[in-house]
Specification:
The protein is of the alpha+beta class. Strand 25 and strand 26 form a beta hairpin. Helix 3 packs antiparallel against helix 5 and helix 5 runs antiparallel to helix 8. It is elongated and about 95 Å long. The protein starts with about 35 loop residues before the first strand and ends with a strand.
């Protein structure tokens, strides 16, 4: 059965003038009382996936000749590879080894390791594994170059330097009369050290990509490659200015027609790249170059720098790569990266198109709302801002096609095949009817017969989007998770003050109930008690200290383990510890950010996440050994990771822990070691505590398994 989502929001297109630009993106959006989702019954596989008036002309571009991917743009807009992801703006690090009673576990004390989120160049070890930043080689660049069967080239002027190495003009010593191709008198020589800081000594990963893609439409040709001395060397076509250079030469503002032409040709290039099974991974103005000035290709667009390219389609099976999320890995450029890239999700075709959307808006408007963030938390803040900026706000100064494009690409599923033809057709009315007069050549769209009449696009109803993957209004709500099981007794209390907590707990114990989960909202408590926990004894502490170390260690010595925990905005915490659990060792961590790096380390040591909570911006994560889980994954989002949760459900995972701050929501999903009867699971998001919905669920033998209060989307 498909998931059901009660959604009562209508997306409206905004006018492109400033007067109609919304002051705050929350305006003109409806808030809803609740939103629930249900896991599908079948989980055997993954779901299948004219000319505008008053448009000024752009005169010929006159800027210095440059070459791909080096020395372009401001220092803060380089590329970051293998950096900590946006949610890891500050990484908490244990101050020492854990301590615990009777070998029962380590306590990771809260500490902070500052990791700056910078737009720097680092390199791959392979398509999947990232290495450290490239260490500059002290060896001199050879004055003459010959690799493989190439002609001899004499080193000329330097074009630029980046994290991948250095690029020079190579002038052919003998022969050579053309401007492009293997017979060109001048080529671009890209030098990369044979030994990197990370110890990688093989050919650059980019070589593998070019071997698969050389000759692909819109990519520069690689004529020769090889090693000489201490360097790997690529011999490539010389190209002209980047779109960043062009943008600067036009006072940092390009015309609608020029940006529309860029959109059409860029989509065509990405379509051909995607057809080959790759995604680029770093789409931005600096990586789009024009041909050399004074040549027939001076208005032709090229996409360069394949150092971050990866496969979206498995080379052997031809199937889409599997979905995953690793929040501690970031690949790309912070300003233009898709939100999925920020969140550490596996790259797919939608990410290239989302980055292109940001690139187009930047070229048209001259600025993006998330520019200006600096410091160690930059990536976190940029991603948060991207997800809090709806298309009508981001594109309020742009013609309608750009907003439509952004809405379409940010609404794509992970494995969805883009409708490139439809995307291109959005810009038909923004482009002149005579191809030779266009500021940018649009050969790609013409060659593959993609250009279609605007009327056809209207018939397909561009404005009517399918079920949304990401779009929505950020909200703070209750998130409750329900499991189907045999009938049992369950009780809930909410809006409980500190002074009333003991009364409710004791009454539950008299009735044979134990606390199964707790949560907090506005410094008040919610308690779920039921008869199906299997606990034999239970203690709890309400403390002004967030996870009181002394009390927890004291209970560990008495063979109690943490089974539920909740934190309040004021920093206080409710910790519940129980006997009768299978755990043999336990550890917990307090962190200013979601500590995925620590969680991943503990996973490798045989621990599993068994409880989570937050207090203000702090996270508290409890991990235990001997849990009965074979594997765990995390879903972390600034809104609500609906698609990710459904994909995990389809592969046999179930939500076992939830927690949320005012900014982010985290879900731990677990796969059991022993496959028993399939457990159906649903999630519910409500503005108020879901008391009426809980009773309805009970009538269907569905019981609360986890609950928290924090960031979602309505």
């Amino acid at each position: 059965m498909p998931r059901a989502t009660k959604l009562n929001r209508k997306t409206e297109m905004e006018n492109s003038n400033l007067a109609n630009c919304p002051r705050e993106w929350m305006e003109d959006r409806r808030r809803f009382s609740f939103l629930w989702e249900r896991m599908p019954d079948l989980r055997s596989g993954v779901r299948p996936s004219k000319r505008v008036n008053n448009v000024h002309e752009n005169p010929p571009v006159v800027v210095p000749t440059v070459w791909p991917g080096v020395g372009k743009g401001p220092a803060g807009n380089g590329r970051g590879r293998g950096l900590r992801a946006m949610n890891q703006g500050k990484i908490s690090k244990p101050l020492g080894a854990g301590v615990g009673g009777r070998g029962r576990g380590g306590l990771d004390l809260p500490g902070r390791q500052v990791v700056a989120i910078q737009d720097e160049l680092v390199v791959h070890k392979s398509a999947e594994k990232l290495a450290a930043e490239e260490e500059p080689s002290s060896s001199p660049i050879p004055e003459r170059v010959q690799v493989g069967n190439s002609p001899v080239y004499k080193l000329d002027r330097k074009l630029g330097k980046g994290g991948f190495g250095q690029v020079f003009v190579g002038r052919r010593v003998t022969g050579g009369t053309g401007r492009n191709g293997s017979d060109a008198s001048e080529v671009a020589l890209k030098f990369e050290p044979r030994k990197s800081k990370g110890g990688h000594c093989g050919p650059p990963y980019e070589w593998q990509v070019y071997s698969n893609l050389n000759g692909c439409y819109g990519l520069p040709l690689v004529h020769y490659k090889g090693k000489q001395g201490d360097y790997y060397i690529l011999v490539m076509d010389m190209l002209g200015p980047s779109l960043w250079d062009v943008w600067n030469s036009y006072n940092q503002m390009l015309s609608e027609e020029m940006v529309a032409c860029i959109a059409v040709e860029a989509i065509s290039i990405l379509e051909q790249l995607h057809y080959k099974g790759f995604v680029h991974g770093d789409v931005k103005p600096e990586n789009f170059l024009l041909g050399q000035p004074g040549t027939p290709n001076e208005k032709k667009l090229y996409l360069v720098d394949l150092g971050l390219a990866s496969r979206w389609k498995d080379a052997s099976s031809g199937r889409h790569v599997d979905y995953d999320q690793k929040p501690d890995i970031f690949r790309g450029t912070v300003r233009y990266a898709s939100v999925h890239t920020h969140l550490g999700r596996t790259g797919s075709r939608r990410d290239d198109l989302e980055s292109l959307a940001y690139t187009l808006v930047f070229l048209l408007r001259g600025k993006l709302p998330w520019q200006g963030y600096v410091g160690e938390n930059k990536g976190f803040l940029v991603c948060k801002k991207k997800m809090a900026t709806p298309p009508e706000t981001l594109c309020c100064l742009c013609p309608p096609p750009f907003q439509q494009f952004l809405e379409m690409v940010t609404n794509m599923r992970f494995d969805e095949e883009p409708n490139y033809s439809k995307l291109i057709s959005l810009f038909d009315d923004s482009i002149g009817s005579i191809p030779t007069l266009r500021p940018i050549r649009t050969d790609g769209a013409i060659k593959v017969g993609q250009k279609r009449g605007r009327s056809l696009v209207e018939l397909e109803d561009v404005g009517q989007l399918k079920k949304k993957v990401r779009l929505g209004t950020p909200a703070t709500q209750w998130i409750s998770v329900y499991n189907s099981r045999s009938a049992m007794k369950q009780r809930y209390h909410y809006n409980v003050m500190d002074s009333r907590l003991h009364q409710h707990v004791e009454k539950g114990r008299e009735d044979g109930l134990y606390i199964s989960c707790v949560a907090s909202s506005v410094n008040l408590w919610a308690i779920i008690m039921d008869a199906g926990t299997g606990f034999t004894s239970q203690v709890y502490e309400l403390s002004p200290i967030f996870l009181n170390k002394e009390w927890i260690m004291e209970q560990w010595d008495k063979n109690y383990y943490i089974t539920s925990v909740a934190g309040a905005i004021n920093g206080s915490a409710l910790v519940v510890m129980s006997q009768g659990v299978p755990y043999t060792q336990q550890s917990y961590k307090v962190s200013d950010v979601f500590p995925f790096k620590w969680i991943n380390k503990k996973w490798k040591e045989g621990f599993s996440v068994t409880s989570m909570t937050t207090a203000g911006v702090k996270w508290g994560i409890v991990m235990s050994r001997n849990t009965g889980y074979a594997n765990q994954v995390v879903e972390l989002d600034f809104l609500y990771p609906s698609e990710g949760i459904h994909r995990r459900w389809e592969t046999g995972y179930r939500i076992t822990s939830t927690a949320a701050t005012a900014d982010q929501a985290a879900f731990i999903l677990s796969a059991p070691k022993k496959r028993s009867a399939d457990v159906a699971q649903e999630t519910l998001r409500t503005s108020a505590f879901p008391c009426n919905h809980v009773k309805e669920k009970w009538s269907k033998n569905q019981y609360i398994a986890s609950i928290c209060y924090g960031r979602t989307v309505s």
